[in-house]
Amino acid sequence: MSGNSTMTAADPVYNATTVQEPKNGKWFIVPSEYLDKWRFGIKVAAVLFSLVAFILEEVVLHCKSCSPLYFFEFVSCTAFLFTGLLVILLSTPLHHRVGISCWSMLDFSYTVVIGVLFLIASAAFAKDNGGRAVESTSVAFGFIASLLFLLDAVVLWKTKGLPCRSKAQPTQPQNQMAEAEKLNTPGSE
């Protein structure tokens, strides 16, 4: 090379071995490898119903028995915040930057747990509230949100199978293992 030591991307020496990572500039990717359009819609609806249930619950000024109200408040707030975060992570490239390698398992487990907790919290709040319209409406949104979470888990299970099952690790063929051993032995250089 002459006095110019900079190399261009068109340099034929590097074309065969260097691949530039495509930059599509998209921050919102649906469908993605972990979230299809149907599940994205279900998750967004669950987030919105959780938010409305939480807001309506916050409007309640007096409670007959406050424990079910507080449990419902905790579950609806948790569902809204964490599911919103999960939707953002799974529908953007940000999930590549987080050190989690088993997104399907995390998504399935979280969705089942939050769906069951929301169902229990809604049932407890429905059984023990003051009977005002705002409480009944909050409970209705809670039941709908819990059903959406459980529907999301069923759709994930039907489309991808149970992510909890351990998949057999592929083994290397014997000849590749023997060849690797020969390469790694001292003096075979």
TrEMBL record:
Residues 168-177 have a biased composition (Polar residues). It comes from the Eukaryota. Residues 34-161 form the MARVEL domain. The keyword Transmembrane helix applies. Pfam families: MARVEL. The chain crosses the membrane at residues 40-56, 68-90, 102-126, 138-157. Keywords: Membrane, Transmembrane, Transmembrane helix. InterPro entries: Marvel, MARVEL-CKLF_proteins. It is found in: Membrane. Residues 164-189 are annotated as: Disordered. Its main location: membrane. It is a multi-pass membrane protein. One of its GO terms (cellular component) is membrane. This is CKLF-like MARVEL transmembrane domain-containing protein 6. It comes from Paramormyrops kingsleyae.
